[in-house]
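Interim report, section 4.2 (structural modelling).
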Amino acid sequence: DAKTTQPTSMDCAEGRAANLPCNHSTISGNEYVYWYRQIHSQGPQYIIHGLKNNETNEMASLIITEDRKSSTLILPHATLRDTAVYYCIVLYAGGTSYGKLTFGQGTILTVHP
Amino acid sequence: NAGVTQTPKFQVLKTGQSMTLQCAQDMNHNSMYWYRQDPGMGLRLIYYSASEGTTDKGEVPNGYNVSRLNKREFSLRLESAAPSQTSVYFCASGGQRQETQYFGPGTRLLVL
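Predicted structure of the assembly:
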């Protein structure tokens, strides 16, 4: 699976958009980008995933560059409850991967009042 | 729907004791997973079960055993606990896409 690089920490003002970058320059054509987050002391929470196209759901938007070497998770109107560690995970979905997620250090997002 | 439930929430063991961590899901998912998370670190996969009746090792399986009792339940057993197994243990189940996983609240284990 491709390696990912994320900033260690980021800050965001409440009500503003939070843009979390992820670099995955070695991603291959059949690897997906997944985002999870972990709020303090809780289990991780699935946010969104994508392959090539930009994706949006009720929680966030995922923007993947045309060359697929990087992506950005966007929380459009961050709230204090969005303060969490955000994990970007790249993996081949299906086949023998059996959903084996590999969590790195992630980005600590702190949303300020 | 309770989602993924784990018992117990907290446990203190002495070195050499054994215990079983229980996990159950009510979402009719085929795949289930056990992770551990050490302070300040990301999650690491211990074991997984792609479907009922199958289990396989993840990244850090040493010192653990698992049982996929049925489609709903996936237990993790520590036969002889060691201080290095002090951690928070998370169980997860995989949805329609196995990579879309739903996590339980965790079991906090302290081995003295």
